[in-house]
Amino acid sequence: MKKRVIYMIWAAYFGAALGCQLAVSDNFPITFFAFPVNAALLLPGAVLLWMLHKKKPTSLLAGLLASPATTFLLLAVSIVTFVALEFIAWLRPDSWWFFFVFSALSAHLLFITFRGLKKRKKHRLRFLLNHAGLLLILVGGFAGSADTAQYRLRVFKEESTQQAFTPDGKSLRLPQAFRLERFDVTYYSNGMPKNYEAHLKVGTENVLLRVNHPYRLSWAENLYLIDYEHRPEGEEAGHCTVEIVRQPWKPVQWTGIWMLMAGSLLLFVQGLSASKKGAETT
At 186, is the pLDDT very low, low, confident or very high (cuts 50, 70, 90)? Predict the structure, then answer.
């Protein structure tokens, strides 16, 4: 397929993405695609791409998804998108534009991963690790964001609490009780808080919580220190505010990260070995 045709097709695709973003006032309804909807869409999509790879390898769509020109174009669009996040108000991770970029990049990565199964045995493993790893990072980050949940609760010294609230004000009861044991604050010379940390009792565990140092409650949940009761220097805070962030798809992302690291290491080792072999024969 000629590059001009490839660029024209992708220009039409991203033109439709931009038109959809500007025409629809609301952002992409990402919460609708929480589990099991996201899984029910991802699995058939993967099967369709596999069938395209096996049954129609010379079709227009297969040629488009497998083209190196598509790789460079989608990487360029992705980089520009992430850079523009700081400058364009409507460009957010839950925007329609992001959905179109994610869909195109994921379909391209999955299709060339299928194509990579035919590569020479020496380079097949590193190819699959790098591309499948990047795909898992994308899927875990975007498709898994619909299942991400945040809960905040105010933790007191006098009594334990299990009552938490979602960002939209809904109340829920947590399985473990939280109680503030002690709260320490250090100050600058001008009296401004320098650092603070909370000593909590979470269930039967003693937890030390600092700002920007989350505590892992489970494989999918992190606990963050958000705020505290501000009192004059020398008086200990009576309560603090903590936030629980639940990310069920985090293991998928970490699997992708480890695969990508392994693939990069294998690429370095095999490339270094090839260089040494070439040096020995000259």
Answer: confident
Distance separating alpha carbons of residues 218 and 226, to the nearest angstrom: 19
**Quick one: tokens of 196?**
């603070």
The string of DSSP letters for 18-84 reads HHHHHH-SSPP-GGGGTTTHHHHHHHHHHHHHHHHHHH-TTSHHHHHHH-HHHHHHHHHHHHHHHHH
Ranges of each domain in the chain: 3-147+250-281, 149-246
- What's the predicted TM-score (pTM) here? 0.82
Supply the pLDDT for residue 272.
55
Q: 282 pLDDT exceeds 70?
A: no
Mean pLDDT of 230-253: 89
Phi-psi region of 234 (alpha: psi -120 to 50; beta: other; left: phi over 0): left
Tokens of 78: 């992705």
